Amino acid sequence: MSNDRIPKDGRKNYKGHPEDEKRQRDALSGRFEPQPDAGGEAIPLPEGPTEIIETDYQIGQHNIEGVKPFAFDVHNPVFMISALAVALFTIVTLLFPTQLEPVFTGLRASLTSNLDWFFMLAGNVFVLLCLGLVLSPLGKIRLGGPEATPDFTLTGWFAMLFAAGMGIGLMFYGVSEPISHFQTSLAGTTVENGIRTDWAPLNGAAGDELAARHLGMAATIFHWGLHPWAIYAVVALPLALFAYNKGLPLTMRSIFYPIFGDRIWGWPGHVIDILSVFATIFGLATSLGLGAEQATAGLNYLFGIANNSTTKVVLILMITGIATTSVVLGVEKGVKRLSEINMVLALVLLLFVILMGPTMEIISGFFGNLGTYARDLVPLSNPFGRTDDNFRQGWTAFYWAWWISWSPFVGMFIARVSRGRTVRQFLIAVLIVPSLISVLWMTALGGTAISMTLAGFEGVADAALELKLFSMLGNLPLTAITSFIGIVLVIVFFVTSSDSGSLVIDTIAAGGKVDAPVAQRIFWCSFEGLLAIALLLGGGLGALQAMAVSTGLPFTIVLLGGCWALVKGLMGERRELA
């Protein structure tokens, strides 16, 4: 080990290098040597000159604590308001599912039809800000201070970035979205009473199979490429900056110190954290509901198990139980092992489809799809002067709200594993690497389904949304094995999302503490499952999407304010280094 890795104050504060297993384990758990004071946030001090923010706030000073056997450690306003609101919503939805279904459907339609322009403009702001920071001198600033070193190897970091952000969505939409956009593009536009009624992106590609394929894949990649990862980046980057460079807790309210100052420890901060909890838990419930829909459909497809509400509820209860067990076991024995299993199974499924499907077509399509995505990125991003209302409102606006509702959860995880990277490295990695993997996934699975359809196999096109993946795999060798792997992937994504999400929600609701009692994580994990059940029974997929959009709306405003705070925080770092 070279001496340049050892700090000037000797071995005492040496934290290891990215290859050290203990260093990586400590970074995931939030613990570093030397250990912090009892009850304090386990965040390492900045290394080198940074703009430290001096504040009298102590982590947990507003918390209420209980003693065994009823041990708890919760932030009074944030936990109480969030927990009571989520519990009340869940109970009401379970009691009146039939009456609430039209309410959910109307809510989603109203928000996406009237505010699609707002979601799309915000998404464009996030992308442009990220690209601007990459090119600006601010990109040289290092998270953790100018002398900080990365906690993880480059390969491990890339793997965690991708695993954090997508999950169940890739399984649910990997086949269904490309084939859906291809079909609607090929069918062209239809107009009734002067209004377009089709779902084709942009102006469609009526009768042109090649153009429809290109447009369908470009529209899919648009929803899974730069924009969602920019949304995650504008949460993760300021979280990392204000925690690792400025000495504030790793919570959402810390981002807004440049705006509110010490008032973030009062009600302005409480509101931000409450909105973060709402956005995360409803975003997770949407994903869990999608996972239950697809896993139940797959079990029916493979084993003939009834595809009904009872099966979905039982499945959610079982998987929530597994997720709760994982929470009790902790990060090392629970989340980490399940994530490793997930990544291996996803890689096996991807390689199988590439090798057993139209291999050369997938490889060439990967580069071709990148080209069509680049060509259509600007028109697809434009919120004004378009006529494709169904596509723009029904697909894009929902996606942007969904990604935004996931952003506190994903952003906090990305921030935790990104210490030691420069802003430029961070943004390039967070935007480009996962986007390329998403393009490959969509090209392999969705492109194979489109090729099957063009070859005359109508099974994928005719299948229900949640069955399209299994229909595509059914036309390849080893159907039973690959379909079973697909179901397992959905379930494990389900578990890891619920597990990791409960950790993040609990951190926010505990006032930034990372070592709160396990019972609190069990509480949030259980409520995620109950909320998913309530929404499924109270309106199915439409209800899940409605709540993702509803919670994503106010949090979009929060993120736009966070962008300004991020720039101001980075400029303060640059002045400190000058």
TrEMBL record:
Q: Which GO terms describe its molecular function?
A: transmembrane transporter activity
Segments carrying the region annotation (Disordered) are: 1-48
Q: Write out the biased-composition intervals (Basic and acidic residues).
A: 1-28
Q: Which UniProt keywords apply?
A: Cell membrane, Membrane, Transmembrane, Transmembrane helix, Transport
Task: Give the lineage.
Answer: Bacteria, Pseudomonadati, Pseudomonadota, Alphaproteobacteria, Rhodobacterales
Location of this chain's protein in the cell: Cell membrane
Which InterPro entries does the entry mention? BCCT_transptr (IPR000060)
Organism of origin is Paracoccus seriniphilus
Q: Which family does it belong to?
A: Belongs to the BCCT transporter (TC 2.A.15) family.
- Record-given protein name: Betaine/carnitine transporter, BCCT family
- Bilayer topology annotation: Multi-pass membrane protein
* Gene Ontology annotations for the cellular component aspect, listed alphabetically: plasma membrane
Its transmembrane ranges are 78-97, 117-135, 156-175, 226-244, 265-292, 312-331, 343-367, 397-415, 427-456, 476-495, 522-541, 547-567
